């Protein structure tokens, strides 16, 4: 272990720990824009500069390894002025329309501009990047808000391995682009949306949340993604009960901030008009059981052959007790008449391993059949 002092606080960290990692692990905030704990060091934004005793000039803490006996200052008047100048340069080519920006309240540049009192640039304002790209149904790319921190490019290359984007061009007009600035669909992008989550500004935003509310209006619900048995932790941002977007929940989980396309963007079924909210019973069976007064017969054309059928044309809603009792009765009758091998069970990859275990146990022990399959291969 290495012992050092940060802002007067003695700290012990493992060898190989950077100063910014040591500070954040001990509740000491060091401003940063290009740094991300799951990505390689960039050192481009220069906001994380700190002072080291007996060193002639401030140094970027994201690439500075802790050494025995170091004495670090993360806050001082010279550091404040240095960071203020850096933010001043950022907003010289970044619109300050925070009052109407969808990212207001969670934009890191806005946060640091507020903390350092930067209300406008002291330089001549000019946009170097003006491209607006909405070439896919998942997220937009608004280059005027991009600060070239490189987080999106690094997470795509280092974590996802897709290498769909990179910084192209030089100087003032350099920007993040796909090969030949083509549409995302023509690149190697897998539309996982991880780049959207790590973006510190409004340069990348989910389409579903545009114009739907400010960050402080949203309620967040942390849960487990239901698409497969991996158990990724996911956080849903909601407003008035409507899901606006999903994020990977940072912290000690199997996925961190990373999600697949389904987990991040495939939640629209939750409020889809065709979603079933109660058990449904075919109308002829409901009539036989006295649950409806309207007689009904199966139409000549099977309901399964109808494209986008209205479920209420063929089924009526019933309560769960009735549904479970009916299923239990039919299971018993079928087993008695045809034997246990008349049953076949199809399990779901969207269930947890524990749920699937219980399901196969029910099929084998309760119904007595080994006719089992799993939808993960389908």
How would you portray this structure in words?
This protein has 378 residues and is α+β, with helices and mostly antiparallel strands. It has helices spanning 19-25, 77-91, 108-115, 151-160, 194-198, 261-265, 283-288, 320-338, 353-366; strands at 2-6, 9-13, 49-52, 59-60, 71-73, 132-133, 139-142, 166-168, 175-177, 204-206, 219-224, 233-239, 242-248, 280-282, 315-317, 345-347, 372-374. The strands form six sheets. Strands 2-1-5-3-4 form a five-stranded mixed β-sheet, with helices on both faces.
Sequence-ordered SSE layout with sheet pairings:
Elements: E1 2-6, E2 9-13, H1 19-25, E3 49-52, E4 59-60, E5 71-73, H2 77-91, H3 108-115, E6 132-133, E7 139-142, H4 151-160, E8 166-168, E9 175-177, H5 194-198, E10 204-206, E11 219-224, E12 233-239, E13 242-248, H6 261-265, E14 280-282, H7 283-288, E15 315-317, H8 320-338, E16 345-347, H9 353-366, E17 372-374
Parallel strand pairs: 1-5, 16-17
Antiparallel strand pairs: 1-2, 3-4, 3-5, 6-7, 7-10, 8-9, 11-12, 12-13, 14-15
**Number of separate domains:** 4
Number of strand segments: 17
Proportion of strand residues? 15-25%
**Strand-and-helix sequence, N→C?**
EEHEEEHHEEHEEHEEEEHEHEHEHE
Largest sheet: number of strands, sense, barrel closure: 5 strands, mixed
Distance between the termini: 51 Å
- Estimate the mean pLDDT confidence: 92
> Which class of the largest domain in CATH terms?
Alpha Beta
The helix count comes to 9
Indicate the CATH topology of the largest domain: Alpha-Beta Plaits
Strand order of the largest sheet: 2-1-5-3-4
Low-confidence stretches: none
